[in-house]
Specification:
The longest helix has 17 residues. The radius of gyration is 24 Å and the shape is globular. About 30% of the residues lie in helices and about 25% in strands. The strands form 10 sheets. A 7-stranded mixed β-sheet has the order 5-4-17-16-18-19-20, with helices on both faces. Strands 7-6-8-11-12 form a 5-stranded parallel β-sheet, sandwiched between helices. A 4-stranded antiparallel β-sheet has the order 23-24-26-27, with no helix packed on it. Helix 1 packs across helix 2, helix 6 crosses helix 7 and helix 12 crosses helix 13. The protein folds into 2 domains: about 475 residues, ANL, N-terminal domain (Rossmann fold), CATH 3.40.50.12780; about 130 residues, ANL, C-terminal domain (GMP Synthetase, Chain A, domain 3), CATH 3.30.300.30. It is built from 18 helices and 32 strands. It is an alpha/beta fold. The chain binds propionyl Coenzyme A (1VU). GO terms for molecular function: propionate-CoA ligase activity.
């Protein structure tokens, strides 16, 4: 069947389509109700199905006689370690850890936060939670204690699972003191903190709530998988929104398992037994879906990479891993390729490795620029597939579905809607736009299986964020257009969320922190273009009257504050002092105007502006600090 036939069937007969796909996984109780609605009218998939995703990821493959296949390859250039774990080995450790967690009182429906670096124990912890129906919430290690505390107070974990340290290139980052600090800052008190000691010399302050990971596993019996309902939350994953507080995206179990299995076959075109590598972090949606669950569900070997595309030790690392571990399909963010391209523009390292095993390269996490795509294609002549999805969706929404039909690539487009996604382009009034007209990217309900169930304990925010603007449609927050062939081009966020090196961050959250500086009267944080990271934040601040502080000192203090409160991952490097911010007559800061000025894009001064002369002041300030592109 062609893409057009399969796609149309998925849209016209969603129940039939997804009932067939549900047969690709094993259920304890096969669902009879395929599509229904919850009490708020939001679509639910496989309401009466029962399964366990840890069973599907591990036990099933052992029962099928594949226990000796390698499940994980842990490749850590920062500790110079390569270690392989078979499905049987992983299952034993996970089942014992799960048993240990039960002995600590954790049970189905409890929540547990996982704050760990890129090591196998992170995956074991996630799978152990899934095994006993504990809802995990992995927090990216680059977030500071304050951010961790916000998540502790929101999802109220019974336990936190952490490790003694992470390694950032050559810096040892002690995690345990950060966890202790976060618990101090939070109102909620987790009962236990399970600590995996990596024995790398990091300080591990002892607290009464601590439990040693190794001792827990060693002293526990293996525990079987606990069946859960299809809509039992598998995890909560926080993502940035337009307000300061992150949104706890809740993922179901059954729909997610079906969607991931479907994606491995029909989008990524990956066969069971092959090696699949998503070079991301377990703390992001890519990590959950494509380092852990999808490859394991599909019985693929997956790589846990503790390193960076450059500097660990150099720009050859990706190519070494691909050739050494025979990676068939790879997934990374464009920013990683840009970093490699900058270090090795002629692709000298690429020529040193046999990359004949690599069939396809997928890119996502941020908009991919043509120069990066072309460079990759020139040096590694395999299909380079840009695809688009979000934390909310959990799996791709726009892609070149290679397992169905490979379509020609158009630069700048992630190709066409994936099966199940009825994607439209609307204007502000909810009218559908014609080909090549840019507008808001929306998706007609029902979203297919695997998409978020809601925002953790916040139905009102769930509705307001995604469904209140256009009744019956999911508002993605991205802008874009469709061409006459149905190819979709995503042009970027339409709100104040920015994407820094593939990390989705909220400028509103950064503004709250910048505004808390004792000398700042008011501020605006905007995302501006950056050659390497795609976007970086820029803070424009108005200082309080009669404040005598050197620009450099204020900048350093604000940068430090942001790193302490949110984390280094924000990459805030520049603070510009301005006398006023451009506002509408009703007092709203004109952030889009600021962005356009800084990016050197064409801009029109909105008629609602309070005082036009501020524009000149901003241009002068940006010139003074040499910030911005092109025309500054
Ligand atoms: C499709 C659905 C989705 O969008 S899911 C999200 C997909 N996004 C991704 O996969 C992210 C892709 N990006 C990356 O993997 C990294 O940015 C790559 C390309 C590897 C570059 O890493 P790096 O050189 O560290 O730059 P960065 O901008 O990520 O980091 C900025 C500063 O933050 C720090 N940082 C980063 N990670 C951690 C961590 N786990 N623990 C502690 N600190 C961390 C970095 O060290 C860096 O710090 P500094 O500013 O140099 O002091």
């Amino acid at each position: 069947m062609t893409y057009k036939e399969i796609y149309e069937e998925s849209i016209e007969q969603p129940e039939k389509f997804w009932a067939e796909q549900a047969d690709a996984i094993e259920w304890y109780n096969k669902p009879e109700t395929i599509l229904s609605k919850d009490e708020n009218g939001y679509p639910l998939w496989y309401k009466d199905g029962e399964l366990n995703i840890c069973y599907l990821a591990l036990d099933k493959h052992i029962q099928d006689g594949c226990g000796d296949q390698v499940a994980f390859i842990y490749d850590s250039p920062v500790t110079q370690t390569v270690k392989k774990y078979t499905f049987s080995e992983v299952k034993t450790e996970v089942a014992k850890l799960a048993g240990g967690m039960q002995s600590l009182g954790l049970k189905k429906g409890d929540t547990a936060i996982i704050y760990m670096p890129m090591i196998p124990q992170t995956a074991f912890a996630m799978l152990a939670c899934a095994r006993i129906g504990v809802i995990h919430s992995v927090v990216f290690g680059g977030f500071a204690p304050h951010e961790l505390a916000i998540r502790i107070d929101d999802c109220k974990p019974r336990a936190i699972i952490t490790a003694s340290s992470g390694i950032e290139v050559d810096r040892l980052i002690a995690y345990k003191p950060l966890v202790d600090q976060a618990i101090e800052l939070a109102s909620h008190r987790p009962k236990k903190v399970i600590v995996f000691n990596r024995k790398l010399g990091a300080r591990i302050p002892f607290k009464k709530y601590d439990v040693d990971y190794d001792a827990l596993v060693y002293g526990s019996e293996e525990t079987p998988c606990v069946p859960v309902n299809s809509n039992h939350p598998l995890y909560i994953l926080y993502t940035s929104g337009t307000t300061g507080k992150p949104k706890g995206i809740v993922r179901d179990t059954g729909g997610y398992a079906v969607a991931l299995k479907f994606s491995m076959k029909y989008i990524y075109n990956v066969k069971e037994g092959e090696t699949f590598w998503a070079a991301s972090d377990m703390g992001w949606a890519v990590g959950h879906s494509y380092i852990l669950y999808a490859p394991l569900l599909n019985r693929n070997t997956t790589i846990i990479f503790e390193g960076k595309p450059i500097k660990t030790p150099d720009a050859s690392t990706f190519w070494r891993i691909i050739s050494e571990h025979k990676v068939g399909t790879m997934f990374t963010a464009p920013t990683a390729i840009r970093a490699i391209k900058k270090e090795d523009p002629d692709g000298t390292f690429i020529k040193q490795y046999d990359l004949s095993c690599l069939k396809n390269q997928f890119l996502a996490g941020e908009r991919c620029d043509n120069a990066t795509l072309e460079w990759y294609q020139q040096h590694i002549p395999i299909p380079v597939i840009d695809h688009w999805w979000q934390t909310e969706s959990g799996w791709p929404m726009i892609a070149n579905s290679l397992g169905i039909e490979k379509m020609p690539v158009k630069f700048g487009s992630a190709t066409k809607a994936v099966c199940g996604y009825d994607i439209r382009i609307f204007n502000e009034n909810g009218d559908e736009l014609s080909a090549n007209e840019e507008g808001l990217v929306v998706i007609k309900l029902p979203l297919p299986p695997g998409n978020m169930l809601g925002i953790w304990e916040n139905e009102a925010r769930f509705k307001a964020s995604y469904f209140s603007k256009f009744d019956g449609y999911y508002l993605s927050g991205d802008g874009g257009y469709k061409d006459e062939d149905g190819y979709i081009f995503i042009t970027g966020r339409t709100d104040d969320v920015i994407n820094v090196a593939g990390h989705r961050l909220s400028t509103a959250e950064m503004e709250e922190v910048v505004a808390s500086h004792r000398f700042v009267a008011e501020c605006a944080v905007i995302g501006i273009q950056d050659d390497l990271k795609g976007q970086i934040p820029l803070a424009l601040v108005v200082t309080k009257l009669d404040i005598a502080i050197e620009h450099y000192q204020l900048e350093q203090e604000i940068i430090k504050l942001i790193r302490q409160q949110i984390g280094a991952v924000t990459s805030l490097r520049n603070v510009v002092i301005v006398t006023r911010l451009p506002k509408t007559r009703s007092g709203k800061t004109l952030r889009k105007l600021l962005r356009n000025i800084a990016d050197g894009a064409e801009f029109q001064i909105p008629s609602t502006i309070d005082d036009e002369s501020i524009v000149e002041e901003i241009i002068t300030a940006l010139k003074k600090y040499k910030i911005g592109i092109n025309n500054i």
